[in-house]
Here is the input.
Amino acid sequence: MPSTIWSGAISFGLVTIPIKVVGATEDHSIRFHQVHLEDMGRVRTRKLCEIDGEVVPQEDIGKGYELTKDETGPITDAELDQMPLPTAKAIEIVAFVDADTIDPVRIGDSYYLAIDGQVAAKPYTLLRKALERSDKVAIAKFAWHNRERLGLLRVRDDAIVLHAMRWPDEIRDPAELAPKKAELDEKEIEQAVELADSMTIDDISGFRDAYRDALEELIEAKTEGKEAPQPTEGEAQQPSQVVDLMAALNASVQKARESRGETDEHATVHEMKPRKKRAAKKTAKKAPAKRAAAKKTTGKKAACRKPRSA
Here is the structure.
């Protein structure tokens, strides 16, 4: 079982559920060290005291807050733990909401909540059943790392999951990033929807971190003294500028269908023809010019004819 990150309780009305918080995710990223390229020695960050210049061991490092520009005051972990904060030792449920009302941008790290002792089994199951039957999620407040946080509780299989959330004022307004209004044809929208349909799958568990796989192959090759693996033709995809949106959508739909072993002759949307009104105006403008050119040509031919001799 993963190591415990935090111990406390869930406060659900008058119900208290002793719990332990464990990580719900794992980081499989490959870590690199900073090294001196000349001799491959590790380059480490040392914590120095700016007054005496000495290296300070971790056990001698504490917290301090700025009183003035030149003066700092100490504060201990014990003093922080004794702050009169209701959520210091409890994940306090404050409301229940429909899951689809939560903006995904606000959701952060995820944690599993495990019972802390058999006495917590019944109230834990009670809360889980209440969340399942109501089809809602719980909004909670809790205090970790010297700050109060907002959280979301939901059910995953038989476990209750805590998702850390960002406060409303921590979310940037995307209005300034929105693109200017662009004109789209209904056919383009329909083709984009068809592309989404052709790429729809039921399970995403098969996706892998291709970068990590390639990095592991590179490290293995270097360890064994072999040449680094070279990318095969077609592996690296270079971004290209989209010139014809409809052509790009058609090609994307076709590629998605082929990857799934599907063939559909009706999947392609043909190039759109100009609207009749525009074509009519264009023809109307050209008609007088053609008649004038015809008259001019006829006049020239007539002028070139020689009169017959009597």
Remarks:
- The mean pLDDT is 79.
- The helical segments are 77-81, 121-134, 186-198, 210-223, 245-259, 276-304.
